[in-house]
C-alpha cells in the first residue's frame, strides 16, 4: 500500500484514514437515516431496493452485508433469505451498528446477526456466503482492493457480490447541478440538521474520489471475480456493480 491515501480531498497517512472515517460515522450515526432521506430526497431507498432485487438471494441463503450501517439492506435480505437463511449485518463502527440494532428492533426484524468488522479482514471461512453486499461503504475503506479480495474469498463459487456506490454521471448538466448541490447545499444541510457540516463536506469529497464505473469494474475483476457488470442509477450518480465468483 502507498504511505498516503485520500480522505476526501485531503492526502492523509494511510494508517490515519480508518480513524478519520470512524470520526465521521461516530458523529453522524444518530442522524444518519434522517440525513439519507433528506439528502437523497428518498432515492436511497429505491437504489437499495433495486440492489436487493438484483441479488439472486433465495430462501436459505447466507448473506453478509458489509458496512451495513443502519441495516436497510439487511432488512430486505432477511425477507428474502427467510428463517432458514442467515443474514449478517456488519460494520466497522460500533455507533453505526448500535443504530442498526435499534432500527431493526423498531421495525420488528429479528434473526439478523451483528458483527463489528473491517471489510479488509473478514473473519469468515472461504467459500461460505451466497451473497456479499456493500452499499455506500467501499469508498470509505482504506484498501479497497484488499476488501474486494476478501469478499471474493468468502463467497461460494457462483456467489454474488453487490457493490452499490456513488459513481460518475456523463451528463454534463446533471454533473454540474450535482456538483453545486454536493458542495454548496449538502454540507450546509449537514450543519443545520446534524450539526456537522464537516462530515458532510467529507462525504461529498469522498464521492468525487471514488473510482468511476469502469475502474471499479476492473478492480472487481482483478480481485478474482470471473464476471462483473454494472447498472447506472439516477443517471450514473449511483452505480450497482454485480460480480460473480466462478
Ligand atoms: C455511508 S455509510 C453506509 C451505510 C449503509 N450501508 C447504507 O447504505 O445506508 C458507510 C458505512 O461504512 C462503514 N465503514 C467505513 N469503513 C469501513 C470498513 N473499513 N469496514 C467496514 N465498514 C466500514 C461506516 O462505519 C458506515 O457505517
Overview of the structural elements:
The protein is of the alpha/beta class. It has a single domain (about 5-245), classed as Vaccinia Virus protein VP39 (Rossmann fold). The chain is about 45% helix and about 25% strand. The chain has a 7-stranded mixed beta sheet, with helices on both faces. A two-stranded antiparallel sheet has the order 1-2. α3 packs parallel to α4. The mean pLDDT is about 95. Bound molecules: S-adenosylmethionine. S-adenosylmethionine (SAM) binds near residues 69, 118, 135 and 137.
Report the order of strands and helices: EEHHHEHEHEEHEHHHEE
Radius of gyration: 17 Å
Shape: globular
Helical content stands at 40-55%
State the separation between the terminal residues, measured CA to CA: 27 Å
Q: What is the C-level CATH assignment? A: Alpha Beta
* Structural class by helix and strand composition: alpha/beta
Mean pLDDT comes to 96
β-strand number? 9
* SS field, number of helical segments: 9
So, the CATH homologous superfamily? Answer: Vaccinia Virus protein VP39
Main sheet properties: 7 strands, mixed
Q: Enter the CATH topology name.
A: Rossmann fold
- Beta percentage is 15-25%
Low-confidence stretches: none
What's the number of structural domains?
Answer: 1
Q: In the CATH classification, which architecture applies?
A: 3-Layer(aba) Sandwich
Q: State the strand order across the main sheet.
A: 5-4-3-6-7-9-8
Ions, cofactors and other ligands present here are:
S-adenosylmethionine
Short description:
The chain is an alpha/beta fold and 246 residues long. The chain contains nine helices and nine strands.
Amino acid at each position: 500500500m502507498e504511505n498516503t491515501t485520500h480522505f476526501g480531498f485531503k492526502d492523509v497517512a494511510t494508517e490515519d484514514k480508518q480513524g478519520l472515517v470512524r470520526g465521521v460515522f461516530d458523529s453522524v450515526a444518530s442522524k444518519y437515516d434522517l440525513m439519507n432521506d433528506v439528502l437523497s430526497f428518498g432515492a436511497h431507498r429505491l437504489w437499495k431496493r433495486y440492489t436487493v432485487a438484483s441479488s439472486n438471494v433465495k430462501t436459505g441463503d447466507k448473506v453478509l452485508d458489509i458496512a451495513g450501517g443502519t441495516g436497510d439492506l439487511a432488512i430486505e435480505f432477511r425477507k428474502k433469505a427467510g428463517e432458514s437463511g442467515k443474514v449478517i449485518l456488519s460494520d466497522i463502527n460500533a455507533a453505526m451498528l448500535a443504530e442498526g440494532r435499534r432500527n431493526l428492533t423498531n421495525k420488528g426484524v429479528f434473526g439478523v446477526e451483528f458483527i463489528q468488522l473491517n471489510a479488509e479482514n473478514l473473519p469468515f471461512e472461504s467459500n461460505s456466503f451466497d451473497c456479499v453486499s456493500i452499499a455506500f461503504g467501499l469508498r470509505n475503506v482504506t484498501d479497497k482492493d484488499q476488501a474486494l479480495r476478501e469478499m471474493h474469498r468468502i463467497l461460494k463459487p457462483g456467489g454474488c457480490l453487490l457493490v452499490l456506490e456513488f459513481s460518475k454521471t456523463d451528463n454534463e448538466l446533471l454533473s454540474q447541478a450535482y456538483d453545486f448541490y454536493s458542495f454548496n447545499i449538502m454540507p450546509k444541510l449537514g450543519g443545520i440538521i446534524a450539526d456537522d457540516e464537516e462530515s458532510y463536506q467529507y462525504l461529498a469529497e469522498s464521492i468525487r474520489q471514488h473510482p468511476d464505473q469502469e475502474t471499479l469494474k476492473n478492480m472487481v475483476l482483478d480481485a478474482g471475480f470471473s464476471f462483473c457488470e454494472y447498472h447506472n442509477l439516477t443517471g450514473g450518480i449511483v452505480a450497482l456493480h454485480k460480480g460473480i465468483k466462478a
